[in-house]
Amino acid sequence: MEPSGGDGEVPTKRAKPSSDDAGGGGGKDRLSALPDDVLVLILLRLLTPAAAQTSVLSRRWRRVWALLPDLRFLCASDPHRIGAVLDAHEAALLYLFVETRDAVAGSAAAWLPAAARRVTGRLLFHNLDEGGGAQEDGDEEIFELPCLESATSASLHLGFLGLAVAPAGVFARLTDLSLARVRLHRPGELGDAVSSPRCPSLQKLTVRESRGPGNLTIHSDSLQQVELHDLHGLQQLSIVAPALQVLDVMKCLYHDHNQLVASISAPQLVTLVWIDDPRVPSSVQLGEMEHLELLGPSLYLVYGLQDSTLNRACLSFLRRFKVIEDLILTLAYLPKIDNYQYLMEDMTMLPDITFLRLIVLTNGHAFGASAFHVLRMCSGIRRLLLAFPATDVEAQKTCPSGCICGDQHNWETDQLLLNCLQEVEITPFRGSEHEVTFVKQLFDWATVLQKMTVTFDYSVTESMAKELCLVLRNFSRPEIRMEFYMDGGRVKVLSAPED
């Protein structure tokens, strides 16, 4: 079958060729005389429907489009035509990108089987769910993801379409699988599909913003990286992966009455990030992880209710490890804290670490006491990243006068020696009074500091940035190299002291 046109095509009038092998206008057709590989490079500049239209130019052009290694369909509205194009395609298909808008399950099922037969490289399917997502669970259609026997990579952003995985077949060459905004059906099916018997080459698995499965059990000899973010309804997670190096689990506890039970066996794990939902308890069993270098536990509330579930989860992970090269620790201040207790005293120990990434969600509050408490327990660090992520507009305003965040003020006079700290990075820096005060103290504590890098927040103007550069350099010492950046680190404002 020879497709003529497709989704997104713009009708144009063409002069009739003077012969099968000549271009329009009666002149010599030098373009058609070019070899196939050159013509393919030309057609790759076009979207696939337009490239397929060139088949009407002459017999010479009739099959050139079918040699394209890449096919791209933007805002496709006719899924059956996509299937026809794929069936008519002849060359090894290294890349297929399909974009739809508010598609239903049946439209995806119209072309995915053909894609499974044809794609030997990357498959990307993005369903823009501008209509508010798919139907409710009880009413929705479900389509089946066929076995991708030859594809090496698949990324499916489905707009919450219902998805089931083919119960049989081997994804023999698949190394990277990413699923986003999908409703997974048939409990246990995804885990079976990505485990070694059916997916022997899989190295990276990503599942984000999805609903289900309730049970995810993975046994893989090849997996090296797993990212599970925002999985609503996950109740049981089991991973046995001897080659796994990175495990990132965030906010997967979106059920009201059940406890998440997790068991992880990954002896080669290097990076572990585990962010729990504070509303639901969890039971996590971790095997031996002698090679772990980076740990990112759940955030820790500075003020809250005593015996906070969230804080207990964070402390539980911190107690599991005595030595960690790199620790990501997030301290969070609620917008209103007057009726809560100061909880930092519950944090009594940290692993022995070299690099501390201290993230402080201040919500406008004074954070010096909590940050001081953390630094006092890891005074041997050599590198420090101090991050102040933005929340919302109100959060950037200074907290009310008399707020209890100012009650903890002894940190400004207590002694602290950071005699191993050589490098500090601060981002994004807004220049608030609390931030400037803390950085001033940091210069006093870090007696061997060699370099400080400051990246200003987008809200800081160039003139404000230059003023803050001078303020911070006045706190510094001549041997410390200071570097200042704006625009997310792309524009340098001021560098070494001699500048």
**Fraction of helical residues:** 10-25%
Report the total helices.
Answer: 10
Tell me about the largest β-sheet. 19 strands, mixed
Structure classification? alpha/beta
Distance between the termini: 68 Å
Number of DSSP-assigned strands: 25
Portion in beta strands: 25-35%
Pfam family, one: F-box
Organism: Urochloa decumbens
InterPro entries: F-box-like_dom_sf (IPR036047), F-box_dom (IPR001810), FBD (IPR006566), FBL15-like (IPR055312), LRR_FXL15/At3g58940/PEG3-like (IPR055411)
Domain FBD: 415-483
Structure overview:
- The longest helix is centred in the C-terminal third of the chain and has 14 residues, at 462-475.
- It is built from 10 helices and 25 strands.
- The relative contact order is 0.05.
- Helix content is 18%, strand content 31%.
- The protein is α/β, with parallel strands linked by helices and 499 residues long.
- α3 packs parallel to α5.
- The chain has a 19-stranded mixed sheet that branches.
- The model is unreliable at 1-25 and 133-138 (pLDDT under 50).
Summary?
With 499 residues, the protein is α/β, with parallel strands linked by helices. It has ten helices and 25 strands.
